[in-house]
Amino acid sequence: MAKKKTIQRNRSQKNTNAIDLSLPQNIVLFGEQNPEDKKVYISQNTYKEIHRFTKDKTKNESGGVLLGNVIEEFGKTHIVIRAFIEAKYCEGTPTTLKFTHESWEYIHKEAARKYPEYKILGWIHTHPDFGIFLSEYDKFIHENFFNGENQVAYVVDPIQNIEGFYFWINEKIERCKGFFLFDKTGVKITVEQETEETTEKNVEYREKNSLLRNIITAAMGVAIVALIIICLSLHSKVNVLQNQQQALVDSANTSLYNMSLQINSLYGEIDSLKSRLAALEPSESEPEQQDEESPSESTDTEDPTEPAETTTEAVPDGSSEEPPQETEASTEDGGTDE
Asked: What's the CATH superfamily of 2-192?
């Protein structure tokens, strides 16, 4: 009996939770009416779920996909967002959000499991304290992954507490001036729009943030100027050091050149001394040669068998004819003796 009761309860819950894909009637306008023939609706539960999700996403961008259905009625297109799936495993930085393969795999599994009757109507991502706009990177994502004519981009700034939709108009991405928050008929919409007090608080907050940003920007500018001055001074010092180094190198080269000249001159003097020494060596050997020749001369004079050599002495001019006369006389005397 208990099993039958649970089965009956599950069937009754399915009947009561029958999905309503009709045009919402219990609606509240946020912002202004759009002059275009497109209107954007988002359910109260989905809206609250998204803001709970983005509340603490204040450092890096985060996001997910929007699901629902499109209704063509009264000559206008009604984009009705009924569910949200977080893009898990995505890669977020303070200025970018990347849907990875794991993110898409998770999204498609969750959509098939929870919302098989819905289709993806766009995406949502955060701009932590950067305001509402679509960067060039955001436009690239929207143009390549959410380029259906009825797909939207929802941007939420969780720090400034502002938001906005973008949709396709005449093949261009345009800002949606306003959107409708809806719920089932009879259910009170408890999300309140910004009152004058909250608007003033946001304005004050933005002014403080802008003042803080201006101060930070000015400080960064001063720091950059100081860094430039330091770099210039360091550059001049480096130039001075380079000049000094070049002067030292030049003086060292000059000294080396002078030393090489001195070394060459010393080599020349050494060569001249060697040549002088070589010239002195033969003069020392001459007496030895004379001593070797003198015994032979003495033996030549002592040999009696050899005929005596007649020597003629150099006579001064005018007396050169006298010796021949003496010999003639001697020969004549010899003849007479005979």
From this structure: Cytidine Deaminase, domain 2 (3.40.140.10)
